[in-house]
Design goal:
By secondary structure, the chain is mainly beta. It has a single domain (5-141), classed as Metal Binding Protein, Guanine Nucleotide Exchange Factor, Chain A. The chain has helices at 5-8, 40-45; strands spanning 12-15, 22-25, 36-37, 49-53, 57-61, 66-69, 77-81, 87-91, 98-102, 116-120, 136-141. The chain has a 5-stranded antiparallel β-sheet with strand order 4-9-8-7-6, with no helix packed on it. Strands 1-2-5 form a 3-stranded antiparallel β-sheet, with no helix packed on it. The protein is globular, with a radius of gyration of 16 Å.
Length: 149
Amino acid sequence: MPTSPAETRPLLHAACHCGGVRFTVRLTDGLNTARRCNCSYCRMRGAVAVSADLADVQVTQGEALLTLYQFNTAEAKHYFCSTCGIYTFHQRRSSPDQYGINVACIEGMSPFDFAEVPVTEGRAHPRDRADGKTRIAGWLRYQANGHSE
């Protein structure tokens, strides 16, 4: 029996800080989609996000704990745990068929696993520009100091 593309991508387990919200996800292109954004909300939230198609995210526990936050155009849907406040994922304005997943919620992953993450220009959103293209505003870099205490 042929394997579907979704079956070749690993099923990852994720949760908020308190564990009240749990979900599974299959990423569209592994960690290659990791990025941050400099829009007013994302720069305060500070999360590194990776991409998943809407159908590839399944909340397995605590859906009632998810709280929705929207602002400005109210097109993007930002979800977070109402108990611990952790941002879990959001339905993107730029790609409404995808979620941005908080990489820190994925078991065994951390935003500090990335030496460099592109920061997209969100202050001038791609959907608000004539060319519709995403621009890179800069790069977020992390380098461990070599001490493990």
